Amino acid sequence: MQHERDIQPVSPAKEWGLPDWLDGGSYGYTESWNENRWRWEFTRRREDYRADFDRYAEPTYVRAIELYKTFKPDGRLVAPDQILKPTDPGFTATMPGPMKYGLAGLPNPRISEQPFYVRMFQPTYGAATLGEGPEFLAGGEGVSVDAPDGTVAIVFDLAQPIKPQLQGLQSRLELEQELRHGKVVPGRRKHPRTWLRYLRVLDGRECGATFAEIAEVAVVETEDTAPTPPAAKVVWDAARALMFNWPA
To answer: Number of folded domains in the chain?
Structure first.
């Protein structure tokens, strides 16, 4: 019988499917990654995301099986052996408020190579509400639109060309923003050239590397920056900030 003290903990790299942080090439052909893929790689490294997936994955899978049993095979549902398991790429866990992460469902954070359709992130803010006109609704009622304080609703005519309707819209919205807030709110800049380095720093720390070790690999020496532990800590802090606050 194996004693508890003989059981070796699984390394973070093996547990979470992390590449070798010492080898940038182990991350694959990152030049081909689009923003959704980059965001997925940062999101799957979040501690809260991992905990939420592990909390909701099994109940989601059990509900899928029970749903199949309820309806029986009738051509509308897949057989149980075709229902994705939590360990399968493409499986998504259902949780309350998944938009906390910008996703409709939670793919397994242990799997880097997820199908594109389960890691399609929604905008960080803003939303589109689609509705039909009065002719579609019985009684000729209008379509109610939820526009909380600080937002505006815009109506597009889908029977007309879209481009002319979009022209001038940005300047009109910026004018409205300036009237309400006294300024045009700038967007946050994205720096994808640094994102691979950020991932390596995050993975290095998770795998137990010291900031001194990370500095030798992931801190670019310049006239103003030396590869020191404090410099590595600055990079790690920036990577953590990006991981939890993805720029819109």
So the answer is: 1
